[in-house]
Amino acid sequence: MDQLGEEIESVLYIAREVMVYQVPPLSTSSGHKAADWNVESFLWKGRMRVLEIGERCELRLEDANSGELFAQVRYARPWTQVEPVLDSSRYFVLRVEGDGGKKATIGMGFLERGDAFDFQVALQSFARRSSTPNQSQDPSAPLKPSAPPKDYSLKEGQTFTIKLPGRETKKPSSNPGPTSEGGSSGGLFALPPPPPPGRKR
């Protein structure tokens, strides 16, 4: 990583060799096609680096030996600076920026499909991070939970009963006595108390 002032520059992806092509005007409104280019005759060949610098992303086309900058793309919302072609996974259309704010459209191609896939993954990862709010950047922003928490606490006056197998609760009797089974508990109902001594029925 290189430190540029207050910003940290990190390399997201490096392609050792890419080709740059002249892009003809669009023949249809659906998009560009590599078949419309002369892919056997490229304008330039060199290295491409995808850099994350602070909160922005840059694509730099550079000479592989000297590092001299050929073209640069500032990749930002709405992410239209890099466009895949319709008929190949190895070719892309880049909207580059030149000196004085001049802009142009060029074609870029990879030798291998795997390189093109890794390039797209690097851009998608940056776009995903940029689309996720960073709480540390704005401490005043409230956190938004995905769903409101449920309140399981009992309100005033609320009760609930838990029934455990084999532990059924018995209501205490106001006049406990022996049961129909001769015990002090476990019966279905209580017998009336015996008559007082000395009285027969």
TrEMBL record:
<dbReference type="GO" id="GO:0030125">
    <property type="term" value="C:clathrin vesicle coat"/>
</dbReference>
<dbReference type="GO" id="GO:0006897">
    <property type="term" value="P:endocytosis"/>
</dbReference>
<dbReference type="InterPro" id="IPR011993">
    <property type="entry name" value="PH-like_dom_sf"/>
</dbReference>
<dbReference type="InterPro" id="IPR012466">
    <property type="entry name" value="NECAP_PHear"/>
</dbReference>
<dbReference type="Pfam" id="PF07933">
    <property type="entry name" value="DUF1681"/>
</dbReference>
<feature type="domain" description="NECAP PHear">
    <location>
        <begin position="8"/>
        <end position="164"/>
    </location>
</feature>
<protein>
    <submittedName>
        <fullName>Adaptin ear-binding coat-associated protein 2</fullName>
    </submittedName>
</protein>
<feature type="compositionally biased region" description="Low complexity">
    <location>
        <begin position="172"/>
        <end position="182"/>
    </location>
</feature>
<feature type="compositionally biased region" description="Pro residues">
    <location>
        <begin position="191"/>
        <end position="201"/>
    </location>
</feature>
<feature type="compositionally biased region" description="Polar residues">
    <location>
        <begin position="128"/>
        <end position="137"/>
    </location>
</feature>
<feature type="region of interest" description="Disordered">
    <location>
        <begin position="128"/>
        <end position="201"/>
    </location>
</feature>
